[in-house]
Structure formats: C-alpha cells, structure tokens
Design brief:
Largest sheet: 4 strands, mixed
Oligomer: single chain
Structural class: alpha+beta
Low-confidence stretches: 82-89
Shape: extended
Strand content: 15-25%
Number of strands: 12
Helix content: 25-40%
Order of helices and strands: HHHHEEHHEEHEEHEHEHEEEEHHH
Length: 381
C-alpha cells in the first residue's frame, strides 16, 4: 500500500508547475504555493481522498486547509529523492535543506515591500515625501482603488487630415496615453487582457541620474516593487504567443533577471540582447578602470512553447566568416536549401574537395579560394 509521501507525489504530478523538465520535484514551489493558498494546488489535494483526509478539516460543511501540516510533510526529509543519487549526479549550490538552487524554479528574490503596490505619481512639489506602499493583503481596498480602470479623458485622434477631438477608441487605434504608466496599463486590462503580442518597456534604470525619483531608504526595494507591480500586469496583457522586451543597464540587471524569472517564469526566458550604447572614446579613454558601454534587453515569452518570432534577413557585405550559401533564396525561408560556399566554388573550378583545389593552385590556393569566395558572395548578395 502506498504511503502518504508516494500518494502526495502522484497527486502533485498532475501539475507541471511543480516539476522541472527532468522530473525533479520543486519542493519549495509546492511549499510557497501552499502558503499562498494556490487554488490549483488546493484543488488537487481536495480531489484525492487520502490527501483530502490528511490535509483538510471539515467545518460546517466547508473544508479548511491545514497549511502547517502540509508544510511539515513537504519539508520532511522522506519527501526528498535519494540523497546519494542526487549528490552523485548533480553538482551545484544547495540551500540548507539540500535542494539545488541553480536547477530549481522556486528561488525567489525577496525585498522589503514585495507584497505591496507602490502608489508613486509624485510631482515636483512632493518629491521629498515618504513613499506610499499599499499592502495587497492588509489594504485591498486601496490597491483596488489604485488599479481600478480609470476614465481616459481628452482623447484626440491624429490623422493625415488633422486632429479630431472628442473621439471614441477603435480596436485598430494606436494609443498614446499620458499619465502614470501603472494606472494606464491597469486601465487597459479590461479591454486588452490576453490580446497583446509584443510589449517593450524602457523603465528607469535606478542609476541616480534618471527619472526614478523615489526617495525612501529602500531605493532598490522601491525600484523592485515598482517593476514587480508593472510586470505583473504586463504578463496579464500578453497573449499566449506574446513576448516582452525589457531594456536595462548593468545597475539593476541581475536583480531584474531574478524578478522576471519569478514573475514571468524561468522556463519562459528567451534570451538577452547586448547593445553597445557608447564607445571608449573621449573621457572614457582616460578612465582608470573598465568602463560600461553596454545596455541589455531581457526577452521573455508568455509561453515559450507557443511563442512565434518571424526572422528578418538583410543583405550584407562579404565576410570571411560566411561559409554557407542559400541556393533558393526566393523560396520561403522554411524551404531554403543551404550548402557550403566552398562546395559551390570547388564545383565551379572542376574539383570535388579542398585537397584537389590545393593541388590545382599549389601554394597560392588559400588566396585564390578567398578571391573566389569573395567574388561569389558579392555576386550573390
């Protein structure tokens, strides 16, 4: 007869959120979901007679979840895979319970006011005021009031014919909304939730010289709360195959990456684009240490399995790095036939291999091959 640990494991297997791709249980993810009274987890536990009997108490025909008892079971050593097998096959940093950090989806970034919504919206007159944080649990009315859809007034439509006043929105309109961006995107939810294909945000970098003028003693925490509030709503706006691009510099890059892994899902991370935004010329040339010349764009998908990215190709000059040739460039890119440039020029020269090409041109074969490749690429670019 299966014991409680085996039964619980089988129940949890019904939810892919709690396992890595290789089948490792994300125990901390399960534990955090229990603390947050996750509806999906509680529903699974209620669906099984044994787990329902063990982790719920019936009060007046209502089942009450025993979070403490469930947490004790999940954190019990018996609930871990065999420790010898784990240590023999896996290498990496672990927490105090022996769970691997690098391969887990349950490592989160903790900071003051994480469970709050930052009111923001300061003007130049009150830049020195203390920050206003509304706790999502203790002040739900204030949070609802802040994020409730707002009426957009003074709408104008700009067209080739001029400016129209007093207009109503159409689904095909491009909107430019002036105001607090948190309130703006929260107001868009009712109409556009789950419909947006691409989101690009360029938030303040929290570097001291930008527009992030928040002044409390938890400057990084304020920034992280600021970003968490907006990313939480942005995720809801994305459709299943949507992507979000977030531009940032080195100052908060590491913290933002961990925050995005938590909110958007580490499995939905696509890539990071590095952009050169400066050179080492002028005053940077006399700096006595390495200088920063780059910014970054983090790319996440709403659902990595469903994401769709249309590649864009352009012609460019010849480079020695080019080694392939698309024989049917006019066909759809899915049908392209790609061959090596070397094989093409060897065929043109009446040889089959580079050894035969070298025999034909002797010591001059490398220069001759470069000339032929360059001429071919220029002619076919």
């Amino acid at each position: 007869m299966a014991n409680l640990f085996e039964i619980l494991l089988e129940v949890l297997k019904q939810d892919t959120r709690f396992f890595t791709q290789d089948g490792t249980l994300l125990r901390n993810k399960v534990y955090e979901s229990a603390l947050n009274m996750d509806a999906g987890l509680i529903g699974l536990l209620l669906s099984n007679p044994q787990t329902r009997e063990r982790f719920f108490v019936e009060v007046n025909n209502t089942f009450v979840f025993d979070k403490v008892g469930f947490g004790w079971v999940v954190n019990n050593r018996q609930f871990l895979p065999d420790s010898y097998t784990r240590f023999r096959n896996r290498i990496g940093l672990t927490d105090s319970r022996g769970d691997l950090i690098a391969t887990s989806d349950d490592v989160v970034l903790s900071f003051p006011y994480k469970d709050c919504v930052l009111e923001g919206g300061q003007t130049e007159e009150d830049q020195k005021r203390d920050e206003v944080f509304y706790n999502e649990t203790l002040a739900p009315d204030e949070v609802d009031r802040l994020l409730y859809p707002k009426v957009l007034v003074g709408a104008k439509r700009y067209t080739a014919s001029g400016v129209e006043d007093g207009v109503t929105f159409r689904d095909g309109d491009n909107l430019v909304i002036k105001g607090n961006n948190l309130l703006a995107i929260a107001s868009l939810l009712k109409r556009y939730e789950g419909k947006v294909k691409c989101i690009y945000i360029d938030p303040p970098y929290n570097g001291g010289n930008d527009s992030f003028g928040y002044n409390d003693n938890f400057k990084r925490s304020s920034w992280l709360t600021f970003m968490r509030n907006r990313l939480h709503i942005a995720k809801r706006l994305l459709r299943d195959d949507g992507l979000i691009f977030i531009q940032i510099n080195y100052k908060e890059m590491s913290y933002l990456r961990v925050l995005c892994d938590e909110l958007l899902g580490e499995r939905n991370y696509v890539t990071t684009i590095t952009i050169q935004t400066a050179t080492t010329a002028s005053f940077r040339a006399i700096n006595d240490c390495p200088v920063n010349v780059s910014e970054f764009i983090l790319i996440y998908s709403a659902n990595k399995a469903a994401k769709s990215i249309n590649p864009v190709y352009r012609c460019s000059d010849y480079s020695e790095d080019y080694g392939s040739y698309i024989e049917n460039i006019d066909a759809p890119y899915e049908q392209w036939s790609i061959v090596s440039v070397d094989s093409v020029i060897y065929r043109q020269e009446g040889v089959a291999t580079w050894q035969e090409f070298r025999e034909k041109y002797g010591d001059d074969w490398k220069r001759r091959r470069y000339e032929l490749k360059a001429a071919f690429c220029h002619a076919n670019s």
